[in-house]
Amino acid sequence: MNKLAFIFPGQGAQETGMGLDLLEKTEVARTMLELADDLVDFDLIDLLGNEEAPIHQTAYTQPALVAVSMALHRELVNRLKVQPDFVAGLSLGEYSAHVAAGSLSFEDAVKLVRTRGLLMEEAGAQTKGAMAAIVKGHKETIMNYCLEDEGVVVIANYNSPVQVVISGEETSVRRVSERLTEDGTRVIPLTVSGAFHSPLMESAARQFEAVLDDIVFGEMAVKLVTNVTAEVVEDVEEIEGLLVNQLKGSVQWEQSVEAMIADGVDTFVEIGPGKTLAGLIKKINRKVKVYNVDSLEQVEKISDILNEDALVNA
Fold first, then answer.
1. Is the pLDDT of residue 314 over 60?
2. Is the four-CA dihedral 183, 186, 191, 197 of positive or negative sign?
């Protein structure tokens, strides 16, 4: 193993039942999830296991996903003899990455993303936005169609060489989608509550900036690659502005992964529910190793693999 990166999923990875094995089988993770439950104004523990609970609504998804991801992270690092060289997260996952890097406390992260989710939902309700995934389209063509449209529509996510997401006004997203479909490109409308990572999140970004003014960010013990620039955050003073801009700017995930690989990362560990990021990375570079940790069973399995790799390469 050359260099190791921990990566954290964003909204869309959530699922009913996530984290329940941690609640049942491990005291450390259970304590973290119970703390998260105390920090928010809804029953987070019930949300995880109740099929009738609104786990897919942005304002509930965000704190729940960060809490479960960080509980899994804690269980993993407690078993590891190696530490990551880099951390990164897709959109919401960047908050988990900051906790892993030491620049943000778990408590602040949970409270922040609860507020972030509420503000995003509010902005979404006011602006009538939409999003759509574009599969195997030409990025230059997609960008040109967005620029040529008379409304507001942008590329919100650069997920992999074969997938981007567009976001903006509902009518504009529909027009660009129709043009791409006519070209033979596959377009998948997304079920979302707003045009995330687009200029339509400007009001949420302004309000969130005021919230972030009260947060004290710590020094990063691990290099963190941010979505906004696909570069390592060099100065703690940059963090607030980056998190504000992340709300209304493009998520450069493909570029972030490529930057870490260029700096020597050959092993990625996705920490959180699902395997979304593992799937994206395999499309970005098939030569790197990718593991996912979404359960206590996987924590035990992957920690053994990483410790053995470290011993062999010592």
1. no
2. negative
